[in-house]
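Data card: per-record layout.
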Amino acid sequence: MATAQGIVRFHQQERTLTFRVEGRATMAQSTPLRRCAERAVEAGATRILIDLRSCSYMDSTFLGTLLTLRKILASRHLNDLVLITPSEACCRILQQMGLIDVLTMQSTEIDPSTQWNELGTEAPDAGTFKRTIAQAHEELANLPGPAGEQFKAVARCMAQADKQQSSPPQAVPPKE
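The structure for this 176-residue chain is written out next.
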């Protein structure tokens, strides 16, 4: 997906879906990445690799989306979401968020002749976008330790804002 934020490309070989993130990974890529991964898993993919060697930054929604994908795979008894060769910047973010021990990482070379497809640029509808963000932050809120505590507050605020937006407006009596 080409944006000012970054680019995400993907490649599927047999039952392995590999994403390659270049530049910044943000909420803008989260829904398309999740949709692509869900479709691949539905079609029989059993392994998802996220190549982060060229990724310079990951926001909380993107990180939470990775946790969501891990949960989707685990629900199918497929515990194979692997971060490939995270950049130094990504390693710092993962360490700060307490995800170093939560997500599996490995250093692997990717075949340079791999033919990559750019992740679609379709913008999700507002409801899907909001759900992706909310679910990503709920996953982060489930983390143990200080990072999880911070995101519990964020998830509560998001739920409260969503509740207020979905409530019918209160009738205000006219002033006399």
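Known properties of this structure: The chain has a mean pLDDT of 87. Residues 6-123 form a domain with the Transcription Regulator spoIIAA fold (CATH 3.30.750.24).

See the next section for split statistics.
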